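Exercise 7b. Backbone tokens:
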């Protein structure tokens, strides 16, 4: 009886052993294949993922370009098709000055930026002849955003095709690693195109909003290019507030304006307070305020240099107040919590001038940022 049962079980044991052998062989084969072809498989998977991102970027840059064309046609009423000019503007580039001899490089760069800005604005004016100055500035910002998206697309596509052509694992890996941050920036810029086309205030304009609220209802005058100034009195101190000229999209040249104001007052300025948006760390809340020392202003550095030079010349302390924002917050329509921070900044400015100045003294409050949608 026992031997009969053993005879019946043996075939199943034999089949199980065969199956286990097959599975083991497949595992060893997979391991060997992974050793020899694992990197190539990984490269193919990364290229497939990057290809999807490149296609998405292409859709985004096309959407931005189409929005630019539509807005220009609706507002500017061009007599000819603006498409060729738009295509040319989206490929425009800027060459920075030679840096081998750094002496005077700031003024060389400032000159090149002025020439570039003037040409860009004239090109937009030519294809939007019916647009007033404010809307012309908005259109210029819209085309600038489209240019930025087009540049991001071209650069990402270049490295994608280069990695695909050379099968370079490290080129492809580095591109894949930075793509999430690149896409975050691209999506924020795409959001900015919609704000620029509609003339809505964006998060980057919080500094300009503070300056506007500080001197609301007071007479304003234009100083230097695209910058307006108004005065008010707070706690017996004379406050000279400046911002870019609005409500069109504009950042102006606050460095030149601050230099002009200091010269008009014979250098008798007790302090400069600069208010601007700044990138927040992950985990921080948008609209939070931080105080610091120094010139709070972004860009290529030319305006920052001018402010620091004037402050050094007349020994004027420079204080900064920043409103924390994400990249998306800075480029897209201004959120409620950011707009509400303007009154809190004014309260902090009031406290600062009480602590650091005396009655009768004059100080400058510079609202830095894009003033689109924010009136005088």
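Sequence design result:
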């Amino acid at each position: 009886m026992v031997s009969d049962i053993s005879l019946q079980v043996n075939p199943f044991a034999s089949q199980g052993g065969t199956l286990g052998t097959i599975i083991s062989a497949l595992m060893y084969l997979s391991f060997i294949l992974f050793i020899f072809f694992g990197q190539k498989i990984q490269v193919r998977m990364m290229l497939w993922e990057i290809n999807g991102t490149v296609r998405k970027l292409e859709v985004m840059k096309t959407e931005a370009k189409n929005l630019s064309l539509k807005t220009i046609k609706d507002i500017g009423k061009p007599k000819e098709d603006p498409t060729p000019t738009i295509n040319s503007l989206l490929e425009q580039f800027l060459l920075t000055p030679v840096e081998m001899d750094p002496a005077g490089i700031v003024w060389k760069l400032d000159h090149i930026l002025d020439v570039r800005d003037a040409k860009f604005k004239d090109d937009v004016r030519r294809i939007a002849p019916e647009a007033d100055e404010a809307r012309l500035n908005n259109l210029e910002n819209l085309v600038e955003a489209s240019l930025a998206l087009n540049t991001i697309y071209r650069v990402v596509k270049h490295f994608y095709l280069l990695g695909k052509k050379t099968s370079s694992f490290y080129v492809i890996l580095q591109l894949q690693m930075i793509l999430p941050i690149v896409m975050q920036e691209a999506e924020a810029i795409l959001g900015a195109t919609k704000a620029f086309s509609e003339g809505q205030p964006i998060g980057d304009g919080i500094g300009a909003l503070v300056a506007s609220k500080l001197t609301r209802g007071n007479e304003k005058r234009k100083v230097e290019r695209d910058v307006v100034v108004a005065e008010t009195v707070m706690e017996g101190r004379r406050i000279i507030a400046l911002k870019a000229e609005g409500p069109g999209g504009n950042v102006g040249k606050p460095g030149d304006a601050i230099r002009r104001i200091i010269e008009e007052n014979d250098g008798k300025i007790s302090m400069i307070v600069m208010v601007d948006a700044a990138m927040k760390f992950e985990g921080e809340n948008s609209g939070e305020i931080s105080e610091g020392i120094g010139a709070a202003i972004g860009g290529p550095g030319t305006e920052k240099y001018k402010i620091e030079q004037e402050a050094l010349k007349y020994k004027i302390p420079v204080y900064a107040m920043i409103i924390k924002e994400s990249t998306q917050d800075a480029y897209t329509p201004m959120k409620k919590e950011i707009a509400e921070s303007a009154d809190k900044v004014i309260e902090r400015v009031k406290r600062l001038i009480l602590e650091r100045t005396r009655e009768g003294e004059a100080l400058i409050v510079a609202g830095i940022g894009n003033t689109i949608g924010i009136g005088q």
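Instructor comment: Residues 1-9 have pLDDT under 50 and may be disordered. The domain at 203-367 is CATH 3.40.50.1470 (Rossmann fold).
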